[in-house]
C-alpha cells in the first residue's frame, strides 16, 4: 500500500479526534489474535460509487478509508485484512460512512460553519503527516486532483461532522455529579463488595488427555512444589517461586490472583482457604487432575462500595451508555427521512 493512500486512511482521525468516537456505534472489529489467519489485501479504490445518500454519491475511496478506521490493524500489515472478517468490516464501514454523510448534511441544514482559523490549523496539522513536499504533492495529485480547495473541503466536512456530533451527542451525553450520585443511590445492588480472598497460587497442570504416566509425573512435580512453597516466608518469596515453577497463566503476575469472589473459587480451593490465616500457605490441593498451592494474603468481607471510590468510573460508564444511546437515536432519526441507496 502506498503511503499517500495510507495517509488518506487516517485523514479524518488526524484532523478530527472526536470522529473516532463514532466508530464504536457502527463496528467493534478487533485485531485478529493469531498470525495464522488467512488474509487478503483490500481492493485498491478507483472512485467507484458504492452508496448514494440523499443524492450524494460516496465512492469506494470513502469505503476503504472507513475500513481502515474500523480495522486499523490493516494499516500495519500492508492493507491486508482477514478473509473471514472482510465482509463484516466492509458492512460496518458502509454503515459508518452513511451515518457520517447524514451527520454532515444535518450540519449543513443547521447552517453550521467552520472558522477560517480553525480550518487553517487543521490543514497545517494534516500536512505535518508527510515526510517531504514530494510526498504531499503525490497525495494531492492522487486524492485531491492537485487542488488545495478540494483538500480544504474534505477537512471542512470532517470538522463540521465533529461540530454536529458535539452539539447532538457529546455535549448532551455529559453526566453530572448529581446524576451519578442519584444512580448510585438507586442501584445499591450494583455496588456490593462480595466476600473474597486475595490469594497467590502455584499450579501444576498435566497435559490434556494425560495418560497414567503423565499424571504420575504431574503429581511428583506437585509434591516437589509444595515442599518449596512451604519454605517461603512472604508474598515476594512465594511470588518468585510461582514465576519459576507455576504452570498457569498467573505465574507472570507472581501467582497473584488479587481478590477472588468466593463464588468463583473451586470448592476444594475454598475449603483449603477457610483453614488458613493471612500469610499462610495451603497444603497441596487437587482440583480434578491438576494441583494447586494457595497463599492467603487477605480476607475481604462482604460490604458496600463508597460513592467516592466509584465516582469517576461511574460517571465514565454512564456517559458512555448515554453517548451510545444518543448516537443510535440520531442515526435512526436521520435515516427515517433519508434516501440511502447502496449501489
Count of alpha/pi helices: 13
Overall pLDDT score: 87
Enumerate the strands of the largest sheet in spatial order, edge to edge or round the barrel: 7-6-9-8
The secondary structure category is alpha+beta
> What is the assigned CATH homologous superfamily of the largest domain?
Porin chaperone SurA, peptide-binding domain
Radius of gyration: 28 Å
The succession of helices and strands, N to C, reads: HHHEEEHEHHHHHEEHHEHEEEHE
Largest sheet: 4 strands, antiparallel
Helicity range: 40-55%
- Which percent band covers the strand fraction? 5-15%
CATH domain fold name of the largest domain? Triger factor/SurA peptide-binding fold
Q: How many strand units?
A: 11
Report the principal-axis shape.
elongated
Number of domains: 2
N-to-C CA distance: 26 Å
CATH architecture type of the largest domain: Orthogonal Bundle
- Mind telling me the CATH class of the largest domain? Mainly Alpha
Which spans have pLDDT < 50 for at least 5 consecutive residues? Answer: 1-10, 12-28
Question: Could you explain the architecture of this structure?
Answer:
With 343 residues, this protein is α+β, with helices and mostly antiparallel strands. It folds into 2 domains: 3-176 and 322-342, Orthogonal Bundle (Triger factor/SurA peptide-binding fold); 195-301, Chitinase A, domain 3. Helices cover 52% and strands 15% of the residues. The protein has a 4-stranded antiparallel sheet with strand order 7-6-9-8, sandwiched between helices. The chain has a 3-stranded antiparallel sheet with strand order 3-2-11. Strand 2 and strand 3 form a beta hairpin. The longest helix is centred in the last third of the chain and has 30 residues, at 307-336. The two termini are 26 Å apart. Mean pLDDT is 87; it is low at 1-10 and 12-28.
